[in-house]
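Pilot study result, target chain (555 residues):
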Amino acid sequence: MKSIKKYIFALLPLAVITYSCDEADVIIQEQKDANPLPAAQTGDPGVVDFSNYVSIGNSLTAGFMDNALYTDGQNNSFPNLLATQFAIQGVGGGTFNQPDINSANGYSGPGPDGIPGTSDDLGRFQLSLAQQRPVPTAGEVPTAYAGNKAELNNFGVPGMKVTDALNPGLAANTYYARFATAPGTSTVLGDALATSPTFFTYWLGNNDILGYAVGGGANESLITSQPDFQDALQQSLGALVQSGAQGVVLTLPPMVLLPYFRAVPYNAIPMDNQALVDQLNAGFAGLNRALDGLVQVSQASPLVNVSQAEADARKVSYALGANPILMEDDALVDYDRPGGEFDILLALNLITPAERQALAPYGQSRPATSDDLPTLVSATSLGTTVGGSATAIIGVTVPAADNLILSASEVQTVVGTRATFNATIAGVVAGINAQANGSITLVDVQPAFADLFGLSPALASFLIDPTSGANAALAAMAAAAADQADGVLGIEVDGQNLRPDFAPNGVFSTDGIHPNPRGAGIIANLIIDALNTSRGADIPRVNVIALRGIIATDL
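Predicted structure:
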């Protein structure tokens, strides 16, 4: 190797002497001709003034990714990507300031000690290729924004609902408190209006149902009422338009499709030991007999009304291979309630007191079906034991708690509520546009999601419009989604198929909810396409493939 290096170095002076300056210029020009630099991009704003763009939204707007707000995520927020395209020569965009978090990993939790601000704090997730799952990095508690709050453009606040944009109490949210102009007094909407925006993007409403969904449907109080949703939306959008700004409002995507609800299958209980299968089935024989007993009692007494189909849906039986998760379902009649079905069996001497006691955990339980959606966090609980008991296994012998799985009835609640919110968004935008010369461009993200998740036209229509045409706006959205639903998993971008997950070629970050930079780029392009079509603009699109996907580690 040393001799080869010496030989190459020895030729260098000869090369310098042999080639004249003119010959060198010819070679350089030949290289330039073969590899021309791309021409500088230019664009046109159409009828929109992009000189002071502000974005109002939640974590999607803030650049929250991988379960944390961190610097690279902020840099790749869809508003920041948009602002970069607006700043291209001819488009007329100005500077775009974000409340920088100044943290490589951000903060996702307090760590094992449960105390924020200590050395074991957790940061953003990354995909462990060795473990095939997201794992946290070391994190740090967010600090106050040190820049000029009066010059901010991105007003994205993780966790913010539609009603929170007008609420001074949002200062209780750390992410807003760190850049609020007057914590406890100011509001996100007021701070945004104080900058005199000429153009805005507004994407709120996801959190008005998402909190309920990610919590497995256990807390209905997390759902914003439709009247409150509509009132806050009208006030916010009305104030923005009255300030003279034009803007974009985005619809809410079909969130039950998110990887957060799809990464863990309903039949996530593996069995490869026949002796264990036999032991479990013997243990559940008493429950199954009791359920059949209730069917028999129903035929003879008006006190009980249990059909064979209902009893069969609650029975537990294991087999080799993949088995359904044993889960709680609060939509079921609670057979364990005082004076309930199990107590009636005891009163009729059809079961013993010991058998009655053994039935107590299964008053509202059943094996999951493909219509149920386990949450991503359920993976950390399923298969673990309760109180160290080897026979009390969550999802196997102990029903998985309601907050771990979005049941079929709760899925319907999410789908229906989101549709109601989208109809409200469309109605409010139409009403404002009728009085303000179409100042707002409504960007429907749902067709892109239908394409990304490989939906059939029929499923796309149902998820977007479960009312089956009762609302004209929803019907139009459903038709657009069905038209773009090709049944092929993934979305084609510049010849590459990007997947609806957090794998290396996916468009979601490792928290299963928020997009990664490529996903953010796709969202930005939906907005750009809409502006180019409806506002006479010519804004160059974001190069999605040039953006990164997820962050992975070999550990």
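One observation from the pilot: Residues 408-435 form the longest helix (28 residues). A full batch analysis is planned for the follow-on phase.
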